[in-house]
Design goal:
single chain, 284 residues, alpha+beta, two-stranded antiparallel ribbon, 38% helix, 14% strand
Length: 284
């Protein structure tokens, strides 16, 4: 059985080998040799999953992740509307391997206002962040005359897989909520206390960390991390975990051991999943 998928692995490695240099930032390039190595190692991880049990497979995947080339990281410009670090997109397993692993800090002092006033205009486009995300994630949108507020639209909810008709109103607006993929309460206990006020505001408003989703499902998630909550839509879990890892890397947040194990368990099914760059930058 373990030989049955070897052609697919070879194809993945061959596709990686044929890639040209990828421009990530004006001053950063990931060369063909790095892409080949990353693809080959990810392919080996996939083969390992076929040959060993679940726990041993995860341990093997963690070792393979640690052997991947380290993510290319650069300091972001200071000020609002920027992450702490610019992390070039790469195999998300490599980004996960770069995150510090330790226990939660006390929740002492946590308040939503530690991350700034809700839905600021950190990208200075004249519209609040909530409506920026609604315009990005909804289809068939109707805007107010000013062009900022979303009045109606349709959401293909990534968390449940169902379609939701959005209509602005006192009660109906709650049917579609904006989720912090890395919950702010979770971030507070895993490094955000060490960020300054502008950095925390950027984290709370970074489009990378925000998704329009089904309201009740978002409330069910609360401040859960990957060890305690995953989207009911299993088909979205790889993308969800990749987004969480990308956010934590961009804002120097850590993961707990249980959280990392849960992330590896999901990524075992998608070992070539790519990380994402901050939503404050084009292509993020």
């Amino acid at each position: 059985m373990r030989y049955r998928r070897l052609p697919a692995v070879r194809a993945a490695v061959r596709a990686a080998a044929e890639r040209r240099s990828i421009r990530i930032l004006p001053s950063i390039r990931i060369r063909r040799r790095t892409a080949v190595l990353a693809g080959a190692l990810a392919g080996l991880a996939a083969v390992a999953l076929l040959a060993v049990g679940p726990q041993a497979a995860m341990e093997s995947l963690a070792r393979q992740a640690a052997a991947l080339p380290a993510p290319v990281v650069a300091p972001a410009p200071p000020g609002p509307g920027h992450p702490v670090l610019v992390v070039a997109p790469t195999n998300v397993l490599a980004v996960l391997a770069s995150l510090e692993v330790k226990g939660r800090a006390p929740r002492t002092g946590y308040d939503r206002l530690e991350f700034g006033v809700a839905w600021e205009d950190t990208n200075r486009n004249g519209c609040d962040t909530r409506n920026d995300v609604l315009r990005r994630d909804l289809t068939r949108t109707v805007l107010d005359p000013a062009g900022c507020l979303v009045v109606t639209g349709r959401l293909e909810d990534p968390y449940t897989g169902r379609a939701i008709e959005f209509r602005r109103g006192g009660d109906s607006s709650k049917e579609v909520q904006i989720d912090h993929v890395v919950a702010l309460g979770d971030a507070w206990q895993k490094g955000a206390q060490q960020l300054d006020a502008q950095q925390r505001s950027s984290l709370a408003n970074d489009p990378l960390n925000l998704l329009a989703v089904d309201g009740p499902t978002n409330e069910e998630k609360s401040d859960g991390d990957a060890a305690t909550w995953l989207p009911p839509n299993a088909g979205f879990r790889c993308q969800y975990i990749a987004r969480q890892i990308s956010v934590k890397a961009a804002y120097r947040l850590w993961v707990t051991a249980a959280e990392k194990e849960a992330m590896l368990r999901i990524l075992a099914g998608c070992p070539v999943q790519q990380s994402l760059s901050s939503g404050y930058f084009p292509g993020g």
